[in-house]
Design brief:
Elements (H helix, E strand, L loop, with lengths): L1 E3 L5 H16 L2 H8 L14 H8 L1 H26 L2 E3 L6 H18 L12 H15 L4 H18 L2 H23 L7 H20 L1 H9 L14
Helix pairs in contact: 1-4, 1-5, 3-4, 4-5, 4-6, 5-6, 5-9, 6-8, 7-8, 8-9
Length: 238
């Protein structure tokens, strides 16, 4: 492993933050809805995201949008991981890739939720966050993929049974975040007071604050029994 000091990293931090923010600003829901000669921001809940796309255009286009947002959130993290995987922070055993993939990914999520290209009114960041966490974990270790898929399947199953799309999505994000945090605790149990590890945990916490905060209205409506149902299973009328 090669060591890298902060003096040799700060410009990478700026570059990744800016580039990933603008990647996040690109909204696939708006693009796909324009192909249908509509604007998803003026339909349904008005949210340019997967759940509103599914409710409006059906499961197929919703799934396409979901996949695109997953890749948008995950691919930058994977790219950064492979760039820095052979580096550790100077004087520590902390892998630079562990910090940089989530540092970069959180800016994709920020760009998705607060895009300057859409007057800071974007989606809610669930699919991009799931892509960040899912692909981030998988690129770290390919053996994690089955676990990620199981968590994803359980999340979809919860949504299918309860039709509470927003809550199911938030639970999926939280479970993946906690799992990643536990893996870092086990990996760096002798270095938990390191500034980079503390910053990494703060980023993971901030990811949850972003996604839960973006869904605050959904949570209020859910508690009041007014939340929109998200049906991903076609039920025949009896």
């Amino acid at each position: 492993m090669k060591e890298i000091a902060f003096s040799g990293l700060w410009y990478w931090l700026i570059l990744c933050a800016v580039a990933c923010y603008f990647i996040g600003c690109f909204n696939f829901a708006v693009l796909i809805s324009h192909f249908k000669k509509k604007d998803i921001r003026n339909i349904g809940s008005g949210n340019p995201g997967t759940l509103n796309m599914t409710r409006t255009f059906g499961l197929k286009l919703g799934a396409v949008n979901f996949l695109c947002d997953i890749l948008k959130g995950g691919l930058p993290a994977v790219a950064v991981y492979f760039i820095f995987r052979n580096y550790v922070f100077a004087g520590t055993a902390v892998n630079v890739a562990d910090f940089m993939r989530y540092f970069s990914g959180v800016f994709v999520v920020i760009g998705h939720i607060f895009p300057v290209t859409m007057k800071f009114k974007g989606g809610k960041g669930i699919a991009s966050t799931l892509g960040l966490l899912g692909l981030g974990l998988t690129c770290e270790c390919g053996w994690y993929l089955p676990i990620v898929l199981v968590i994803g399947a359980l999340t979809i199953g919860y949504i299918a049974l309860t039709e509470w799309g927003s809550m199911g999505s938030l639970i999926g994000v939280s479970v993946l975040t906690v799992w990643q945090a536990v893996l870092f605790v086990l990996r760096y149990q002798n270095s938990l007071v390191n500034v980079w590890i503390i910053s990494l945990f703060m980023i993971l916490l901030f990811i949850n604050i972003l996604t839960w905060g973006a869904h605050r209205k959904n949570i209020y409506k859910l508690l009041a029994g007014e939340e929109h149902h998200t049906s991903i299973i076609k039920r025949k009328n009896k």
